[in-house]
Design brief:
Length: about 300
């Protein structure tokens, strides 16, 4: 996973009192809990901070969605500042970085969890990879393809629009033409590094205590404190690579170019690095790419609510 372009082409291929509460909420997720041998107390700990009555979204006022204000930011890498910059992070032959202007949007604070994805599978009978249901409930869901991630985002978009408890700010934003979807490359990178163009979400130097990298597996979302990180987002570096809705193409980035001049075997961009990557792939500007059918233990996703 240390190559500057990461291509993966070879695959087309309830408990006690707590469970009673889940049954009442209509979200028992029997198949997931049946595979989890944790005690009731351990299950409760895994789901602490998430709403069982709201598809296990974060238990906060905005259901885990964080506003990113409109404005510009420098996209790509300048090797004079970041000597680890890969060539595919260069904006053009004449410019190392480009300035991208984005409207306001929301991005999820955490990566989508196993419990959240399981709620979707339970509600829709979606044919997910069984391995996606076998991770800890508060870990990022893994073994999900790009098409799986898109299917989840479309289901959540419809489900949130019908929810009586949807926060007014999110309801208004959706009514104004926004959709729940995967972030495009620019939305992801701006949320990770902001307008100051930092190398990592926390600054210009690697700090191993800020991200789950170079380890043996995923960890619960939000396990790493990052007071320096912008917008209080979690795991923008490490844990799992995150799918985006941008097809892999050379820069400069254009939001409207996602389906222009693409071959049938187009790759889709992933961002952020994973637990089994080193620090060079934890940088905010790193671009990975994979086949849309790829399902691997180090690939997951997070969501945005975007008008683009």
């Amino acid at each position: 996973m240390n190559n500057q372009k990461i291509t993966l082409r070879t695959w087309r291929a309830c408990v006690g009192r707590y469970c009673v509460f889940l049954l009442i909420s209509g979200l028992c997720l029997q198949s997931v809990f049946a595979q989890n041998t944790s005690s009731t107390a351990q299950l409760a700990a895994q789901l602490q901070g998430f709403r069982a009555d709201a598809w296990f979204l974060p238990d906060d006022e905005m259901l885990g969605f964080v506003p990113i204000p409109a404005g510009s930011f420098p996209m790509g890498s300048n090797p004079l500042i970041d000597p680890m910059a890969f060539e595919n992070e260069r904006w053009s032959q004449t410019s190392r970085q480009g300035i991208v202007e984005l409207p306001d949007y929301y991005i999820s604070r955490f990566e989508v969890t196993t419990a959240q994805f399981a709620a979707f599978v339970e509600a829709t009978a979606y044919r997910a990879d069984p391995q996606s249901q076998q991770q800890a409930l508060n870990h990022p869901v893994a073994y999900v393809s790009w098409t799986d991630a898109v299917a989840y985002s479309r289901w959540l978009d419809k489900t949130l629009r019908e929810a009586a408890f949807l926060p007014p700010a999110l309801k208004d934003f959706l009514m104004e033409g926004a959709h729940v979807t995967l972030p495009n490359e620019a939305e992801w990178e701006k949320a990770a590094k902001g307008a100051d163009g930092r190398i990592y979400p926390w600054g210009n130097q690697m700090q191993s205590q800020r991200a789950n990298v170079a380890s043996g597996g995923t960890m619960a979302v939000g396990s790493f404190s990052c007071p320096e990180c912008l917008f209080d987002l979690k795991d923008m570096s490490g844990n799992v690579w995150e799918w985006t809705r941008s097809a892999y193409q050379d820069y400069p980035f254009e939001a409207s170019n996602n389906r222009v001049n693409l071959a049938e075997d187009a790759l889709w961009v992933m961002r952020g690095g994973s637990y089994n990557d080193e620090s060079n792939n934890a940088r905010a500007a790193v671009r990975g790419a994979a086949d849309p059918g790829a399902r691997r233990p180090f690939i997951g996703f997070r969501l945005v609510i975007s008008k683009q």
